[in-house]
Amino acid sequence: MKVTVIVGSKSDLEVAEKVRARLDAFHVPCEVHVASAHRNPDKVDRLVRDPETDVFVAMAGLSAALPGVVAARTLKPVIGVPLHRGLGLDSLLSVVQMPGDPGRRGRPRFGRERRVARDRDPGPQVPRARGRPREVPRRVARGAARGPGELVVNDPAAFVDEAVLRLREEVPERTIVAASGGIDSTVAALLAHRALGERARAIFVDTGLLRAGEVEQVRRFFAASHLPHEVVPAADAFFTALAEVTDPEEKRRRIGAAFVRVFEAEADRFHCDRLVQGTIAPDWIESGGALRDTIKTHHNVGGIPSDMRLKLVEPLRDLYKDEVRAVARFLGIPESERQPFPGPGLAVRVTGPVTRERVERVRVANAIVEEEVERAVAAHEMGRPWQYFAVLLPVRTVGVTGDNRVHGEAVSVRIVESIDAMTATAMAVPRPVLSRISERITRALAGKVVRVLYDITDKPPATIEWE
Fold first, then answer.
1. Rounded Cα gap, residues 38 and 427, in angstroms
2. How many Cβ atoms sit within 10 Å of the Cβ of residue 58?
3. What does the DSSP 8-state code read for residue 199?
């Protein structure tokens, strides 16, 4: 039996040598290597392909991706050791992966198990389920469940302390923060404000692609979170960038580029060269790159133009949505459980051409879905979903208004349950709720939308958003 220990930093070698010493006492061959998942991915690949290794031990900080990356490249046992201040070899050894543990679709098991989308290995293929890479448990310093379905960061206070120190190292002077009003960017903005004070400025861009009342809601949300911010109107720039674009990937790329140009202009005003944004693990996993398939390009990852002048700072890069919410609760952010809203806004809920008129239609439909779902949840007709929204489809369909035959568009309603957005299940919504949604949408958009559909597809094979 041979054990290979991989540490993410030379500073962790002291603990790694303790592992070697203990294994030597049992006459178990052991090698120790330094390889960062982000800085030396090729070296990690080479180490994981060693045919003589029977067990891998991956040692890294609480928020590091190394153990999950190692597990993504092998079916052999992987043990993740969290290293943070007083934590070391004597801290909890959390098993990332054991052989024969089948990939699961739908909800993950609770406890310390997490799921991460597998990087596709160009060597022996990891078994796939329904067209997506196999997903295996990830238990690297992530917390135990505190209630049914609630997975949390093991120690939000320690994570915040670590993130603040890291931000101070990565931002020597000033920075702007991309703040959309969502939980991810708000947590990133509050961490930056805690770390840098007045040297960080949150920028909220009004793209013209937001939900009904979103700008004022975000203003109130930031005020309640005690977050200094600025609102930048930029609708014209975004609609110009999206003119005549129908391809979903191209939409996301153009939206990402439009955001960057706005942020570059704001950075010039603030005299800085850094951009803090709330990128989380599903963003870069689904955007592909290196050995991973592209599921969909996230505007804040694959949509970033290569000539961007700003340096990115991503304090939440290795967290999943449920973990971000745990940090949000610790920071006292109100509405920390509010549903996710895509950074590209309603542009990815208007399939086909993006025009002001079509965006307004989906804005109306989306508001109705949100109102009716929240009303049904309050009345205990259904549980609270993870996400619920409307999508405008690029089809013309026949309808009837009075005695007249009309051609209008169709809307699809999407309501899903999930834990971290990596997988999701279409919710079994009571028929009366769906009927109210359909009736209100077709009345509010009479002659423009004549058909309402309900999407019953899980993730996988579908993504949560349509584009």
1. 37
2. 28
3. G
pLDDT per residue over 371-426, tens digit each? 999 999 999 999 999 999 999 999 999 998 877 899 999 999 999 998 877 788 99
62-109 pLDDT per residue, tens: 545 788 788 878 888 888 876 654 444 444 344 445 554 433 333 332
Cα 440 → chain centroid: 31
pTM of the complete model: 0.63
The residue ranges of the chain whose pLDDT is under 70 are 61-64, 82-154, 284-303, 335-337
Q: What are the domain boundaries of the chain?
A: 3-137, 156-331, 350-454
Residue with tokens 């960038």: 241
- With tokens 């609270």, the residue in question is 384
Q: Identify the pLDDT of residue 327.
A: 92
* CB 375 within 8 Å of CB 354: no
Query: Rg of the chain's alpha carbons, rounded to an integer?
Result: 23
CATH of 156-331, one of 3.40.720.10, 3.10.129.10, 3.40.50.620, 3.20.20.120: 3.40.50.620
Q: What is the per-residue pLDDT for 427?
A: 96
In this chain, the answer to whether the domains covering 3-137 and 156-331 adopt an identical fold is yes
* Cα–Cα–Cα angle for 136, 142, 147, rounded to 5 degrees: 95
Token pair 């500073």 in the structure block, residue: 11
d(CA 57, CA 88): 13
Which pLDDT belongs to residue 220? Answer: 85
Tell me: domain 3-137, CATH 3.30.70.1050, correct? no
Q: Which amino acid is at 464?
A: I
Task: Determine which helix (DSSP H) or strand (DSSP E) holds 137, and give its type and residue range.
Answer: strand 136-137
DSSP for residue 141: S
Average pLDDT, the chain: 80
Per DSSP, helices labelled H in 197-296 are 214-224, 235-241, 248-270, 281-287
Cβ neighbours of residue 247 closer than 8 Å, sequence gap 6 or more: none
Q: What b/e readout covers 208-229, taking b as 16+ CB neighbours within 10 angstroms? A: bbbbeebeeebeebbeebebeb
> If you write DSSP's letter for every residue of 163-182 in order, what string do you get?
HHHHHHHH-SS-EEEE--SS
Asked if 184 and 326 count as a contact pair (C-beta separation under 8 A), the reply is no
pLDDT at 38: 73
Count of other CB atoms within 10 angstroms of residue 315: 25
- Is 3.90.960.10 the CATH classification of the domain at 350-454? no
